[in-house]
Amino acid sequence: MPRKPETLLDCAPITEKPGIDRAMRVAIQQARRGKKAIGFSNQQAFDAAVAKLVHAIPVDAQVAEWFVNENLIPVVRRRWKKILLNPAVLAIALALAVIGGVFAYRIHEHLRDFPGAEKARHLLAVATSTRSVLLDPLKTDAGTLSDLFFLKHRLEHYDVPAEFADFKVLGTRVFDDEEVLRVAQIWAVEKRMQFFLFPAEKNPKDGSVTDFSDWRFVELEGWTGAVTQRNGVCFMAAIRGRENDLQPYLEKKKQ
């Protein structure tokens, strides 16, 4: 049966207790302001008087025992499972999970940061968009390029570490970057690997540079870079892949 106002008024409550259904409240308000307001008020008063009279009737003790443990008006409680499966709740939970995941990834990404890590990530972005045709063709070993960088571009200590000195080169270039300054880029034959040499990050307080001979890693959009810093110059070997793909090359010198 449709919940029309007339139908609702036939069973309208005679109390003003909270928790009344909204449709019922609307029907009662309309009845009190409409043409049948007087009749509705009289009916409410009559029902209240009858209810008062019924409550005053004494109940036999034996009959009262029947209703001691009876729940005449069961209370409907919303279960947690039903609440959690609500689409709105699920959408909010999913959004929070995504935000939390991004936040955790950012924290993890910067846990191993070192001076110059942001510059290295910037150059990884350069590596993703670089094509070999942009570099000057040159076939030689990577370890021999130090003289070229010094004689042609006046770049001191732009040396390729021994781990990558024997790698065959397809091309190279030197360019200026707004964030990194003077950068030397090398394109190697081995797995289309790219090398970058760039100025180390200086201490903002005293302008000093602290070198490190171990390898530190940065990642960006499927690319990984292994970075070391010597004589105030950073060297990064960049490859499309993970840290495990670079580890064999870094261990060659130890062997």
Task: Identify the notable features of this structure and list them briefly.
single chain; 255 residues; alpha+beta; 3 domains; seven-stranded antiparallel β-sheet; 9 helices; 7 strands; 40% helix; 22% strand; rod-shaped
Order of helices and strands: HHHHHHHEHEEEEEEH
β-strand percent reads 15-25%
Number of domains: 3
Could you describe the largest sheet, including whether it forms a barrel?
A: 7 strands, antiparallel
pLDDT averaged over residues? 81
Terminal residue distance: 86 Å
How many DSSP helices?
Answer: 9
- The tally of beta strands, per DSSP, is 7
Low confidence ranges = none
Radius of gyration: 40 Å
Q: What structural category do the secondary elements indicate? A: alpha+beta
Describe the protein's architecture and organization.
The model has no long low-confidence stretch (mean pLDDT 81). This protein has 9 helices and 7 strands. By secondary structure, the protein is α+β, with helices and mostly antiparallel strands. The chain has 3 domains: 5-66, no CATH class; 79-111; 114-250, no CATH class. 18% of the residues are buried.
